[in-house]
Amino acid sequence: MERVRYGMIGGGKGAFIGGVHRTAAAIAGNWQLVAGAFSSTPDVSRASGLELGIDPARTYGSWREMLAAEAALPAMERIEAVAIVTPNHMHAAPAIAALEAGFDVIIEKPLADTPEAAQAIADAAEQTGRRIAVTHTYTGYPLVKQARRLVTSGKFGKVRRVAVRYMQDWLSRPEDLIENKQAEWRVDPTRSGEAGAFGDIGTHAANLVEFITGERLSAICADLSMLPGRRIDDDGAALFRLSGGGRGTLMASQVCVGDINDLTIDVYCDDAGLHWRQEEPNTLRIGYRDRPTEIWHAGANRAYLAPDVLAIQRTPAGHPEGYLEAFANIYSAFGRAIRGTEDALDEPGFATIADALSGMNFIRASLQSSRAGAVWTDL
Ligand SMILES: NC(=O)c1ccc[n+]([C@@H]2O[C@H](COP(=O)([O-])OP(=O)(O)OC[C@H]3O[C@@H](n4cnc5c(N)ncnc54)[C@H](O)[C@@H]3O)[C@@H](O)[C@H]2O)c1
Questions:
Q1: Interval between CA 181 and ligand 1 midpoint (Å)
Q2: What residues contact 121, with CB distance under 8 A and at least 6 apart?
Q3: Rounded distance, CA 358 to CA 207, Å?
Q4: Residue 16: CB within 6 Å of ligand 1?
Q5: Average pLDDT, integer, range 133-159
Q6: Model confidence pLDDT, tens digit, residues 283-302
Q7: How many Cβ atoms from other residues are within 10 Å of residue 318's Cβ?
Q8: CB burial of residue 242 (10 Å; 0-12, 13-18, 19+)
Q9: Which of 35, 130, 279, 366 is the most exposed place for a label (fewest CB within 10 A)?
Q10: How many CA atoms lie within 13 A of 379 on its CB side?
C-alpha cells in the first residue's frame, strides 16, 4: 500500500507530542512525513524541518502557507493528510482550513479549546466529506481493545460501575510553571481552553470509559479545584452516569505528588470486574465471584485474545509493548481508513469526531457542574 503523505502543523523543536506522532507514524509504516509548518515562528519551523530531513521547499513558515502551497501541487505529490499537534487554541483554524483544502486530518485532543470551535471542526468535516481521527492514545493499547471486546459483547452482563483515575504530579509545584513550554500554555485559559487538567487528561479518562463500555457519559457531578494563583483546574473529581444506566467516578489531577502518569480503569459488570493500568499495560486483570481471578497477557501468541487484538501487537510475545506502539496503532488504522482498506470492526481503531465532541461535552458539563457547586449536569 502506498504510504499516506502527510504534513505536520506544530511539533517543532522543543515540542512534546509532535515527535511522538512522527515516531508512531513511522512505526505504523503506512505514513510518510513530507511537509510541515512546525512552529508559530517561521525560522523555528524551517530549522525543525531541516533537522527532520524534510525537503526545505516543503518546510513552511506558517500552516496557511503550507496548505496553499501543498494544495497547488500535482495530486500525486501533494500531502493527503495533516497532523495537527499544536496547543488547543490552535486546533480549529488549521483543522477547518485543512479540511476545506481537501486534506484528511489527524488531530490532538481535546478537539478544540471551546465546544463551539470543536463543533465548527465537525461541521467542516461533514461539509467537506473529509476524514478526521483524534489521537486518544490509550484506545490503541491491545488489552484496552480486548477489554472493550469483552465488555461490549455482553458476556459479563451490564456495566454497573466504572472507576477511572488519571493522576500526574508534574504541575504540583509553583516552579513547575517556570520556563516549561508544555506547562505554560496548559495553565493559560486563552490557549488551553476553559478547563485545565479535566480538559488535558480528564478527556482521556472519559474517552477510555466510553471506549471500553461502548456507552456515553450522560450526566456528571464534578468538583474541580486548583492550587493558589492558578486560573484553571489542575485537579478534580466527579461522579458520572452512563447512558446504559451504570454509575462511575472519575478523578483527574496534575498535582497528585508521586504519581507520574497513573491512568487506571476498573469496569464492574454484573458477572466480572475488569482492571487495566496504563503504567502496566500488558496485563488485564479480570475478577469473578465464583472462580479465580484471571490475568490476561498481551502477546501475539496468546490465542485467547480477539483476532483484531492479536493483529495489532508489534513486539515478540513477552516483550513489553507500550505507548509508542499504542499510538502507532491509531496511525495505522487511520492510514488504512484513508486507503479504504480498514477492518470491518465495531470501532474504527481511532477516536472519531463524535467521540471528540463527547469529550468536549464532558469538559463543558464538568465546568458547569463544578461552578454551580457540584450539581448534576447533563452532557
Ligand atoms: N494524545 C496525548 O496523549 C497527548 C499528549 C500530550 C499532548 N497532547 C495534545 O497535543 C497538543 C500539543 O501539546 P504539546 O504538549 O505537544 O505542546 P507543545 O507546547 O510541546 O508543542 C506545541 C507545538 O505547536 C507549535 N505551534 C503553536 N502555534 C503554532 C502555529 N500557529 N503554527 C504551527 N505550529 C504552532 C509550537 O511551536 C510547538 O511546536 C495539545 O492539544 C495537547 O492536548 C496529547
A1: 10
A2: 91, 92, 95, 96, 99, 107, 111, 112, 132, 353
A3: 8
A4: yes
A5: 98
A6: 999 999 999 999 999 999 99
A7: 12
A8: buried
A9: 279
A10: 23
Is any atom of ligand 1 closer than 6 Å to the C-beta of 156? no
Q: Is 190 helix (H, G, I), strand (E, B) or coil?
A: helix
Residues in the chain: 379
Q: Ligand 1 pocket, 200 CB below 6 A?
A: yes
User: How far does residue 11's CA lie from ligand 1's centre (Å)?
Assistant: 6
Q: What are the residues facing 132 on neighbouring strands?
A: 105
Asked if residue 109 has its Cβ within 6 Å of ligand 1, the reply is: yes
308-312 CB contacts, 8 Å cutoff, 24+ apart:
308/145, 308/343, 308/345, 309/142, 309/143, 309/145, 309/146, 309/149, 311/343, 312/140, 312/142, 312/145
Residue 47 Cα, ligand 1 centroid: separation in angstroms?
A: 17
Q: Where are the beta strands (DSSP E) in 101-209?
A: 104-107, 132-134, 159-167
Could you report how far apart the first and last alpha carbons of the chain are, in Å?
Answer: 41
**Distance, CA of 101 to CA of 97 (rounded, Å):** 6
CB 242 within 8 A of CB 217: yes
- In angstroms, how far is CA 141 from the centroid of its own chain? 12
Please report the domains of the chain, with CATH numbers, ordered by start residue.
Answer: 4-130 (3.40.50.720), 138-319+347-371 (3.30.360.10)
Does this model's pTM top 0.85? yes
Tens-digit pLDDT profile for residues 196-239: 999 999 999 999 999 999 999 999 999 999 999 999 999 999 99
- Determine the distance separating the centroid of ligand 1 and the alpha carbon of 247, expressed in angstroms: 33
Rounded-to-10 torsion of CA 107, 108, 110, 116: -30
